[in-house]
Design a protein that fits this description.
The chain is of the alpha/beta class and 282 residues long. α2 runs parallel beside α3, α6 crosses α9 and α9 (181-193) runs parallel beside α11 (220-234). It is 41% helix and 15% strand. The protein contains 13 helices and nine strands.
Length: 282
């Protein structure tokens, strides 16, 4: 991956590579566990976990590891915010970016307007004659904490905090989750009309609920919807993320064309399991 990139997720996507990530709670203990793993990115989960910006701030710090910093390694922190796209909660994006997150995952984006808001909320304002003015930035100005976290001056942070790929040198990733049939239907228009969408993630859980097949991710209805998402994105050069990658499905996920693979770590208890078996307590 390109050494000059601060955001390892963007570095991989821009190079046409596969990027490996996981969800984790905004908890310092979890951040320490992930800090020395081989994940490219870590998405702090604040949609279905508590919205606690103090815990997020501490987790960002505990994700740092001096050995990884020197080697330009370690997972890049992104944040999934709690508000659905229709809520247009720009302040969630503003707060996580101001703390130093390198990107925002927006749940339940279903329309062009919601997508435009998602990108705009992650961009600083510019004048209308700027060639990359649209979507017009809405992010408020308070870069000090983020600049410190990135190891930059405020002015250096401004230069690097554009939204990729709208800004080819930008280090902020905007990811949209497509989680319902309205979003699937509107996705081609979203990608055609809203520059700055760097990643689309299939929201399998909520999508399966709407289709009446909850958590049946291999159901034909799910397969069709996911295929439509993949087709729309691949035709436009936008990477697609899969949120439930396991050892059992990873080959199929790769064959299908996903490039942002979210695979949760698996905790095992071999001594306990064997001990209970040997003592007849299975």
């Amino acid at each position: 991956m390109a050494a000059q990139r601060l955001n390892r997720a963007i570095a991989g996507l821009a190079a046409g590579e596969h990027v490996f990530a996981s969800f984790a709670p905004a908890d310092p203990a979890a951040a320490v566990e992930f800090s020395t793993t081989r994940y490219d990115a870590l998405v702090f989960e604040m949609e279905h976990k508590p919205w606690d910006v103090v815990a997020l701030r501490d987790s960002l710090q505990y994700l740092l590891n001096r050995r990884q910093i020197v080697a330009a390694e370690g997972p890049t922190p992104l944040v999934r915010i709690p508000a659905n796209g229709a809520e247009r909660a720009q302040w969630h994006a503003k707060q996580v970016l101001d703390l130093g997150a390198y990107g925002v995952v927006w749940p339940h984006v279903a329309t062009v307007e919601e997508a435009r808001n998602a990108v705009a909320a992650c961009r600083y304002p510019s004048l209308p004659d700027d060639p990359r003015h649209e979507p017009a930035g809405l992010r408020g100005d308070s870069p000090a904490a983020a600049a410190r976290y990135w190891g930059l001056t405020n002015q250096q942070y401004y230069a690097k905090s554009g939204v990729w790929p709208l800004d080819p040198d930008g280090e902020i990733l905007v990811a949209l989750m497509i989680e319902d049939q309205l979003g699937v239907a509107n996705l081609p228009r979203i990608l055609d009309e809203v520059p700055g969408v760097g990643l689309v993630i299939v929201g399998e859980g909520d999508m399966s609920q709407e289709l009446g097949v909850p958590r049946q991710y291999d159901h034909p209805r799910m397969a069709e919807s996911k295929r439509r998402v993949l087709d729309a994105c691949l035709a436009r050069g936008v990477a697609v993320g899969h949120p439930h990658v396991t050892a059992d499905n990873v080959k199929q996920v790769l064959d299908d064309g996903y490039r942002f693979l979210m695979s949760a770590p698996v905790r095992s208890y071999p001594g306990l399991d064997l001990g209970r078996s040997l003592t007849g307590r299975d």
